[in-house]
Amino acid sequence: MKVLVTGGCGFIGSHLVDALLDRGNEVVVIDNLSTGRLLNLDHQKENPKLTVHIADIGEYGAIDEFFAGVKKVYHIAALADIVPSIQRPLDYHKANVDGTINVLEASRKAGVERLVYAASSSCYGIPDNYPTAETAEIRPEYPYATTKWIGEQYVLNWHKVYGLKTTSLRFFNVYGPRSRTSGTYGAVFGVFLAQKLNNKPYTVVGDGKQTRDFTYVTDIADAIITASESDDAVGEVMNVGSEGTYSINRLVELLGGEITYIPKRPGEPDCTYADTTKIKQILNWTPKVSFEDGVKNMLDNIDYWREAPLWEPDSIAEATKDWFKYLGKK
Fold first, then answer.
1. What is the greatest pairwise CA distance in the chain?
2. Structure pTM?
3. Are 170 and 156 in contact (CB under 8 A)?
4. Residues carrying an active site annotation
């Protein structure tokens, strides 16, 4: 089967490409390399079933031809991270909203049979209940979360109006090898692993008791493919999580090392925790990688982060000043 992955050179996308190739699919990748890296697919470069196109989903005319003959589309491409979405909201709208519409239209016109969208649990903002179900109120706290949720609405609407068979999966705190190493201050694993390599203390936000539903990337890829293979998932929104929630202090304990504390940030929940009842009922899907095993895998692959920027309290304070400026409660 010929399938297409947007953002296939990125963190989640490259693991998904691996899984699809392992299943014998012919895989087409579209990526503009704004955050993805060709290195993430370097181990597949001799695979005759892989084709990579360097193109921007924000430009319809640059991508529509690549959808010819494609049966399934996995729309993973997006701009992520909180701070740059506050600083550059137009860029985020172009990538995450306009880009999604372009992918939907190209899919529709090419007669694509299925499309799975990578949505974000950040749409819940600071929820009232944990674990958090798909029925929770939508409360995005910053432009990234807003644009990903708007993209989801278009994905569902293209199913309702045009009959394109779509599914939206809301990911919770994805981690694993190949997560982004450069650019803006962001995901905790990239920050901590670079600090560990440089023998620096981990910059723990607040008291470190906040918990996150850390979900390993191969479990995410498995959920995406499982959803694309089930007609029961068409038109649905489903959470994808690890079935647990783990404190930052527990992460530090597993990584080993000293801690320095930095101020708690506004607009961040004290807990993220997916209610995965729906995906279990519809797809019979459950995660396979434990938090402890996932962290061990990260440490086994720690050399990947040798080129990652080293973040320390002063540079973090500078990088996140707009975060406090715009999201701080007066």
1. 57
2. 0.96
3. no
4. 144
